[in-house]
Design brief:
alpha+beta
């Protein structure tokens, strides 16, 4: 199963992000929502075959809401421009790494990792500090580098509090979250090989997820 209806809806709502258009096209949204949930159910099975710790069964526990919370935002557009799903142990609200799929025309990607809360972030940094070679081995593996180009996202300018600034692998401790990203063309979501391609990405990123989750399991 592919995401043709999902992409069609997103290509419509992005230039028409207002309640009037959405209300007039609510049926398109509902069809896209149902399609995305059904596809995520398939992805859950793919993920479980690679990471046996994943214990979610319901796609709704993995999918992020489409309606934006605009209460504290200057951007008052009511809807997101993407559908996103995070498949990980214990569900999307848990502290554990997983597989994230981001479907957004022109900005689609598949990622591994987690955006941890401060307490979990410190535990991750401590675990890496105690075993930097393991993480470096994962990030520098040739097959891994074919798809994922190092740790992504914002990083601290200095060493995080409580860690020595002269630590030789300090760059591994400066990220504000621990994730790796592989950007994909929109055509991936409507390809007959969608699930096979995702399986390859899941297998590639799993050692990274497993390393970080191993740290968290010992700490929690």
């Amino acid at each position: 199963m592919t995401l043709a209806k999902t992409l069609r809806f997103l290509n419509g709502v992005i230039p028409n992000n207002n309640k009037e258009w959405f209300t007039a096209n609510k049926k398109l949204y509902l069809k896209a929502k149902q399609e995305f949930e059904e596809v995520v159910e398939e992805w859950i099975d793919l993920a479980k075959a690679i990471d046996p710790a994943i214990d979610v069964f319901d796609a709704k526990k993995c999918i992020f809401r489409f309606y934006r919370d605009t209460r504290f935002s200057k951007d008052k557009t009511p809807y997101k421009s993407n559908f996103g799903a995070f498949i990980n142990p214990c569900g999307k609200k848990s502290p554990y790494c997983g597989f994230y799929m981001h479907v957004e025309p022109g900005e689609s990607f598949v990622a591994g990792g987690v955006m941890p809360e401060p307490g979990a972030l410190r535990k991750i940094r401590k675990g890496i500090f105690n075993n930097p070679e393991k993480l470096k081995g994962i990030l520098n593996d040739p097959n891994f580098k074919n798809y994922f180009d190092g740790l992504s996202g914002e990083k601290l300018k200095r060493a995080p509090k409580g860690f020595p600034p002269d630590f030789k692998d300090i760059d591994l401790l400066r990220p504000k979250h621990y994730a790796v990203v592989h950007y994909v063309p929109d055509t991936l979501w409507i390809s007959d090989d969608l699930n096979e391609n995702l399986k390859t990405l899941f297998k590639t990123v799993f050692p990274f997820n497993d390393f970080i989750n191993g740290i968290l399991r010992k700490a929690i």
